[in-house]
Amino acid sequence: MVTTTPDWQSYNDMPDNKIQPSPSHMTQQPMFAEVYTPGNIPRVNLHKGYNSQGYQCDEFYKRKDLNVLLLGDSWVQGDGLPLDQCCAELLRTRLSQYFGASVANWNMAHGGKGYDYAARTLLCSLDELRPDIVVLAFGVLDRREYFLPTGECVNFSLGTIGAIERGDRLATPEIKRAFDSWSRLNNHYDDAALAIRSFKLIQTMLDARDIMWCFTTTPWEDTVSRIEELVKFGWFSMKNYLGAPFDYCDHVSESNDHPGVNSHLKFAERVADWLISRHEARIRELLRRK
């Protein structure tokens, strides 16, 4: 999925899957806007964030009876939609009405991000946020993020590597080496291996903390068949799989192919139904103790 913005400012903003000419200010060494270090909730740059950390969700310090964290890419983020029409907000409404409780919407989805981002975000913030439920909707497998020793995040994408190779973007020797290595490892098998690594880390962190969680993927190209194959052979957890991808029955507009409000509503209902069918008793007991 390609989302183009007119004011790219860092590696994190270059759209995936397209090599495009860079504006003149791109020839300067970019500053990193996002840093991911353990024990600290990452601060992101979504250009239209709602909370103080830059995410399109509630403030993290405002805990509710039930605290739900979502992770994914621009589909879960709700690209092109107002906040109240995004799946995270619709899921909050459904769970709140069903259980008669207040629900926190912690939507940490980030456009253009992949498995590495989801694993790193949870590694950094899980013990700080202590969510009751985590919902993951992964994007395509070939997205990768590289984290410098300082925690700074660099997106690996065709657009960025093209800009560096053309000389449109300056890069440190370390980043050039990273991109050179990525270009040699960018293949179908390595994508799957790294996705499995990140998934296993996510699964280990969530299960160790006894957190209710589920996952799925977006129906982009061959992503669904590849994920279902990983589920079939036990690399991805069958018991946590939603059983279907992010619903896609409409789009935002003629110029924006991201899921529309009906798609978000269907996905929110799918997640709510899955949680209620499997964890209703546990959720009610959790709410009773609070």
Report on the structure:
By secondary structure, the chain is α/β, with parallel strands linked by helices. It has one domain: SGNH hydrolase (Rossmann fold). 39% of the residues lie in helices and 13% in strands. The protein is built from eight helices and eight strands, in the order E-H-H-E-H-E-E-E-H-H-H-E-H-E-E-H. It has helices spanning 74-77, 87-99, 115-129, 158-166, 173-185, 188-208, 223-232, 261-289; strands at residues 66-72, 103-107, 133-138, 144-147, 153-156, 212-217, 251-253, 256-259. The strands form three sheets. The protein has a four-stranded parallel beta sheet with strand order 2-1-3-6. A two-stranded antiparallel ribbon has the order 4-5. Strand 7 (251-253) and strand 8 (256-259) form a beta hairpin. Helix 2 (87-99) packs across helix 8 (261-289) and helix 3 runs parallel beside helix 6 (188-208). The longest helix is centred in the last third of the chain and has 29 residues, at 261-289. Residues 1-31 have low confidence and may be disordered.
Quick structural gist:
This protein is 39% helix and 13% strand. By secondary structure, it is an alpha/beta fold. It has one domain (34-142, 186-289): Rossmann fold.
